[in-house]
Amino acid sequence: PRSIFLTRHGQSEYNAMGRLGGDSPLTEEGQKYASALGEFFEEEQVPNLRVWCSQKVRAAQTASHLKPEMQTEYWKALDELDAGICEGLTYDDIQQRYPKQADDRATDKYHYRYPSGESYEDVVCRLEPVIMELERQANVLVVSHQAVLRCVLAYFYDRPLSELPFIDIPLHSLVKLTPRAYHCDSTIYAFDL
Ligand code: G3H
User: Fold this and answer.
1) In 2, 16, 63, 154, which residue has its Cα 20 to 30 A from 179's Cα atom?
2) What residues flank ligand 1, with Cβ below 6 Å?
């Protein structure tokens, strides 16, 4: 059976500061995860593994320790949900500067669209070609972001859209999905760095 591996990028400088989005590089912890991920796939020897990575610096750095023979493709469609005017802010900043936005988001997180940015619904839409391609491919590793991976997981786990924005995907963990006829098996590897 073939497998789909999903991971967020390693911890970024913005993650460490509690800031949303942006395009910051990995912290030292994040770098450790990137090298641990490289070692994991070195040992695992997954045949013909393809790597699909977002176009953000933190994702590319996370994929950088994988062997060069694993061809890496950089998909803009795998970039993190665009928080628009809230990019670079913390959740406290948003609460203070845009309380109405924070309320609207709390009311309907799936449909809420950040001004000049995206909603989860928008991300589901732009992921459609990626998911169709994932269905056709053999072994793939996706290196992306929490909001995007929530959308991918909700699809493979067949979870309702209302629950999708709340699926927890911790940093420095790797999800292995093995699609079966009517469900998907999954294994989570938590890395101890
Ligand atoms: O890591 C942050 C997520 O990408 C977005 O989180 O949609 O729960 O605010 P949120």
Assistant:
1) 63
2) 80-81, 145-147, 165
* Each residue's pLDDT tens digit, 19-69: 999 999 999 999 999 999 999 999 999 999 999 999 999 999 999 999 877
Q: Which residues are catalytic?
A: 9, 80
Q: Are 65 and 37 in contact (CB under 8 A)?
A: yes
Nearest CA to ligand 1 atom 1: 146
For residue 106, which amino acid is it? A
Q: Output the furthest CA–CA distance in the chain (Å, rounded).
A: 50
CA distances from 91 to 23, 56, 87, 152 (A): 17, 21, 10, 24
Buried b (16+ CB within 10 A) or exposed e, 20-45: bbbebbbbebbbbbbebbbebbeeee
pTM: 0.95
Q: Is 15 exposed, middle or buried (0-12, 13-18, 19+ CB in 10 A)?
A: buried
Q: Specify the DSSP class assigned to residue 66.
A: S
